[in-house]
């Protein structure tokens, strides 16, 4: 047996050297114990074979390493045959120790490769047809439900076809009538068109293909059922509620306008903040109403995406104002006009952002003053007055692309008149009624170091500094008196 001293097992970091040390100790011990027969022993016993590079000696030894020999075994050492057996046992333990971790690896749980399952992109540019989730006959109740839905749709479409003929007859009577009779017939025709619109929506609103198209961004805004579902999703899924909550909670109403009734779903996008610019793959940042932005994000004009639900082309006026600019003389706040663009044509078939917004009163980035509280930057998309009225009859009689609104010759507001801009007086002068609809949005900002660059590079004037005035202390006179006399 191989003679070793009793000691602790070597650590994992020194196992490479300990194994090599064992092979060297065997050679040394043989020379010391044999004494006079050292020359004959060295001639007959072959030298230990050095470990190859591809052997598993470089691998960490498992905890099942054999214990070192006892003192009694060390006394029996000295013969040549036993030395050969010692080297053979050492090589055997090395091979056993390398086979153990391989077995342990096989016993472990095999992890499945991580596969990213990405849903295919579906849109109007890359559409997909609706497929039934179940094969016919798999669930009889589902098949019967589809039959009922399709049967109801056919009956309603038949009624729509008959009602369209009645509407056409009434329209001819309206065109031939004059005076008060024409007004009466026009009111009757408006009610008939309302009923026709309801029937068209009901004939397709329950079809699975229609629901699939609207839910997967493939809505055709020319179809009444698609247009109705998109509008109801905006009104009932919480998006409109959030807008109205923020505008009233933060007193945008009545600070900017006395009343608003949104009819346009207005989305605003800006570039992402610096802390997300490199982490997020998105190039734009969708602004939630009332969210805080940095002045760095709004140095460039924000992008406006309107979603309109009327088929005729109407004109809108866009304004962006800040009602929280400090007014030192009057010890109050005033309004600053950042952006203005009139005569924007919009309809239900409009897609994408509003183009050419910086061609009238150019955009000046938000610049909240140092020392002032947060500023509420409000975007208004106000409807311009109609030529006759906004009704279903006007939508049906309007030509394609011909606006049903009056075109307003609003002059460009000079930079000197931006500060102190009166939104209510402007809306009253140009008959912009927020109660008739429109789109609205708002976000907030506070001062940071970027604002100094806006004052120096864009506004070309020194940056003001503000602070809250000190409160009058009613006990100031008593604080100067002695407490004890």
TrEMBL record:
| Domain of life where this protein originates | Eukaryota
Coiled-coil ranges per UniProt: 153-202
List the biased-composition ranges (Basic residues): 103-114
Q: Sorted alphabetically, which InterPro entries does this protein's record hold?
A: PEBP, PEBP-like_sf, PEBP_euk
Comp. bias (Low complexity): 28-44, 85-102
Q: Where is this region: Disordered?
A: 28-114
Keywords in alphabetical order:
Coiled coil, Ribonucleoprotein, Ribosomal protein
What GO cellular-component annotations does this UniProt entry give?
Answer: ribosome
Statement: the UniProt record of this protein carries the keyword Coiled coil: yes
Q: What is this protein called?
A: Mitochondrial 54S ribosomal protein YmL35
